[in-house]
Specification:
The complex is a heterodimer of chains A (about 325) and B (about 525). Chain A has about 325 residues and is an alpha+beta fold. Chain A contains eleven helices and nine strands. In chain B, helix 4 packs parallel to helix 5.
Amino acid sequence: MRSEWLAQYLVQQADTLNHAYRLARQGDQGDQGEFARSFSGFLLDALDPLMLALDPWPAANKAALAETSYQAGLTLARRGWLAAEHRALTVELFTRVLPTWLAPYPADAPKLLVQLLNTLSHLPSAAQRSKLLERWQHCNPAPDATPDHLLVLGWMAGLPEFSSAAMAVLGRQPALAEHLHLGEPEQLAHPWWQGTTAGWRTAPLELGASTWLGGEFAALPVLLTSAEQTLIQAGDDCWQLHADAWGHKLLAHKPERAAPVPVQDLQQLPPGLSEHWRSIDLARQCLERPYDWVVSFHNSFRIMIIPKSGGQS
Amino acid sequence: MKGFNPFSRISASPTRPAAQSTSSASFDVAALVNGPFGDPDQAAQPASVALAERLRQAYFWIVNHAVISPHYDVEYNLSPPQPIQFGDSQTPLYLPTDQSYSSFILLPILTFAARRKCLFIGGPGRGKTASALLMGLLAGYTPKQVRRAMQHGHPQMTVADLLGNPMPMDIMKAEEQSDIRISWRSWLDMRVKIVDEYNRIPTRTQSALLTVMGDNYAEMFNQIHECPPAAWYLTANDDQGGGTYPVIEALKDRIDVVVQALPFNPRFLDELLIRIEEGVDPADCLPQVLQFSEADMAQMEADIRAVSLPPALRQRLEFFASQFEFSEYSGQQFEYKSKDTSRLAGVARHQLAMLENGRDRLADLGCQTRNGLSVRSLMSLIVYAKAMAYFRGNSEVELNDLTQMLPFVLHSHLFADEDAPFFQQPESAAFLSDKIGWLRHLFQLSCREFERQGRHRNDEVAALKAELDEGLEGLSLKECRKRLQRIERTLQQLASGNKLSGAVHDDAMTLKYLHQRYSNYQRWLTSQG
């Protein structure tokens, strides 16, 4: 262990830290040996370099951050973020991102760390978390600006449900939009605009599958609309569809007071749409929205979203 | 260096969120920065939480960390739950549609908040003492303090063992009893008092315990020691007098609520195994934020009292309570037609039952019990229903709060008559051993009868009583006569249209009382000229 301070801290707090560790293990049903290995790896490869880098901080601030990080490490271990495929990213976070970002804010560090980790936990894949961290390193926001940055970067990493809140932030802070190369406000309002570098997204995206193929739908998905939302119903379950250039998601939804209106079965395909699917695919419904079409396929239990080309609404 | 308690991590999400708003297009940023890694604000310093929320957090902390209790027998529902039938007896298992609770933890927590008295019953090794110990920790004591202050009942326990000893030097020197100073036992000053195996305490020591429990003071050699208000926890392996000494009735009557320790589910053996292997004792590390100060406890008790009991619910409770004391052939005079009259006279129940010829002994709920409800048990019931509403974050008691609390409060206050026709029916036989189930069923039957009689829509007696409660001042002679006539008319209607039952008896007694009040007033008005 390279951080002498952390070594002393761990010895002084051994009893209580061991209790915390045992409590975390109690709730973990996985391989206990693997849990111990991955967590000790976290202490050595992630927490130790972080505390070494922040060594000049006052002891009280270091203790507060060490406590929060220790608890966070136990949660990371339980959520599999210390397993082989995610480990490199987690270590990168603690050794490269956090020391630079947290260094100027000793008092706020525990809160900032928890905010960042919680946001990362919304992103299911390591690739998405990596995307967020990559952009994060270019911003390193101050404590006050952190929630706004988390919102915008979280949305860009694949949380489309936060798009309208992110838009509101970007409207308030044009400098942030500029820093992220997101272009002009009118372009930003378009859901399929990916910024000045990547331009428009034109490729269709697909989501959903039947439960027996590991998807969400236990029955044929049916498109519904309600109060400007696109809903998808399969059996007794209902979801709200969120999709834009940055990602797509189905969020469980309870139909609101205004009853959702089912989309009519397909009479005639809009011209040029069918080139996006195979001849064997059977499209049942097609919903035209301002910026895209949503098509449901009843032979494959899936939904396809086709952006309108060229960025026109 | 900042003190670090690993168990201080408490779920950041509210334990009982208000009705969730439907998902909208935009999301609150708080939803993004909160998550499995805890509450960012708590990472800096623990936020102050409202008392009711802390109480719920304490409940969930105990359920999740301290006691392995997978029984959720206090059920709440938002919509009717779908029963799943099991076995030849077609026993239904209900999946509750609202947050439901484990009585073994919930009732002690409510006892703690309302500072009442709780008895744990159940076989050895079911966690009775461990649960009582956790309640002591909630009051801010260390495990060592609670363990040392716990009174363990045994057959040689003397009053001095329980309360304290006189100073030996004072005994030698004292000229009067009041000169003898007493070294009072420290447990008397605690805000949580635990008496383990109270049915093993000799009768004389039980009487001393009764004074402390009932009147909150201890007495020895003419010296009085006032005790602070406290929550009491008693444990017993058996509630039916199976201890070393029979428990005196008055002591039993002081107990507000009885909780039964349910058996351990072997499916949870893995958790026990980890505890043994890791040497975990979560009871040693209750989070500081879940410890309640004396002021907190006083505040909680006041808040619980402030929860309102709507008149509609009170009427249901009045109707329920009126069913049991009445016994038509126990007395000649109307006022003495109670089960207590025949009990005091030593008349056997079956002799009275033989005299019955009119009423349907199966339908009449009063026939199912051997006794009526005491005032103390009704008070306990109201307090626990209020505590339950408070625990669920409500300012008003709901019907289900009453339904759920009633069996635990009346467990040792209302006794089934095994000879009653109700228990002879095959489908009701299990109720003789399942007292909680029987009491809950009894209240539900009472509510059904209440609604059948339409008392929730029209209750003439309640209306007349409400009129009197407004006061007699300024009431004219004419109006007084009118009301007297109405009372007499209502009495006539009661007498002509109904069999004499508990509810009718109580209504008639109420009307007689009203009649007295008005007729006395009328006499006074007439004498004034």
